Amino acid sequence: MKKRFLVIALVMMMLFVTACGSSSGGGSGNSTNAADSSASDDASLKIETTSADISIDYLNSPDSNDETIMYASEFGMAIDTPKTYLDNSDKTYFYYADGKMETGMYIFEGYLYPATYDELMSMNEEDFTAAEAQLLEAFLFFKADASVFPPDEMTKWYEETIGYSADTLQELGTVTDEEGNAYTFYAYTASPEDIPEGISEELKPIYEGVISELEAAKKNIKYCDPVDPGAVDEGAIISFVSTDVDGNEVKSEDIFAAADYTMVNCWASWCGPCIGELPEIEELSKKFEEKGGQVIGILMDGSSATGLADAKEIIEETGVTYLNVIDWEGINEQIHVQAYPTTYFVDSSGTIVGSAIIGANPNGYEDTMNSLLG
User: Percentage of residues in the chain with pLDDT exceeding 70?
Assistant: First the structure.
């Protein structure tokens, strides 16, 4: 199997739990499903399914608090979260993410780990590697631009890029948006034979239940309007009373009022790309201060004793002098970080300006701040 997906290890991205809201439209089989008339921008949306036992319904009004739905914002779809996982989240961790693989191709992927998120984050490298050996590649959904990937090309691409045989790929249907762009949805879901060897007797029924429920879920997917992940939090306000990595109390209103614009870099102590760009961010911090801007970091695993200890060591080794704040209760209700690092820009009131920059991109940070400061 070629490990070429957007993310395989937890060290690259974090869980992004958002959900599609109320359902509208309907129908299944080979009929065409129209969007809800209340969503005027999507009045010409057309959905065609490939068989009578598949349903692709249109959903609007995303709801970020519904854990029963796994939503892929950039991809533009959602499926039901396996109930077996929800009932056993104290033993396992279901990790999923989505994004663009290449021109005309999006992927939405999910993995079941044999330990909880907190357990995984506290593991040493050897134990984490052992846990990865027992993860279940639970599902892969693909949204292919039909003009770039007609069926024959899709089959070829799937076999060459993903590394699975074509008979494991199921075509679900086609969505044509209001601009006439057609996208075909495909799915791969795991089978019982894919359960890793050596899995414990306690976890095996959980894996089996998740597999069974995903098989049903892929026949009842929900199409949502794709969202630019960087723009999700534009206009939101970052507000907190927390501590810095040295234990000093800090308040967002005092911090942000000290500069015209502040770059807010969300990072984690286990994230390689985050750590790699810290020296460059330190240099940018000095440049920005000369122009009326500033940089702060938000340590997203700072509430963990291990994360905080590791981060303090990293900060010292990389020569970082700008303020780093520990994550606070309620942060996930203010900002929706789906990948590390994610970097926001806020004005003096803490209001997010423009789209977030996802991924390590010092040049992008500098260009954005320069455009804001003029």
Answer: 87
CA distance 341 to 272: 9
User: Quick one: pLDDT at residue 74?
Assistant: 83
Residue 235 tokens read as 């206009």
Least confident interval from 140-149, 204-213, 283-292, 327-336? 327-336
Mean pLDDT rounded to a whole number for the chain: 85
Cα–Cα distance for residue pair 244/250, rounded to 1 Å: 7
Beta-carbon contacts of 121 under 8 Å, excluding residues fewer than 6 positions away, are: 10, 270, 301, 304, 306, 307
Using the predicted structure, report yes or no on whether residue 184 has a pLDDT greater than 70. yes
Return d(Cα 351, Cα 312) in angstroms, integer: 28
Do 132 and 3 meet the contact criterion of CB atoms below 8 Å apart?
no
CB 178 within 8 A of CB 43: yes
Query: Could you tell me which residues are beta bridge partners of residue 55?
Result: 220
Sort strands 342-347 and 32-34 into parallel, antiparallel or unpaired.
unpaired
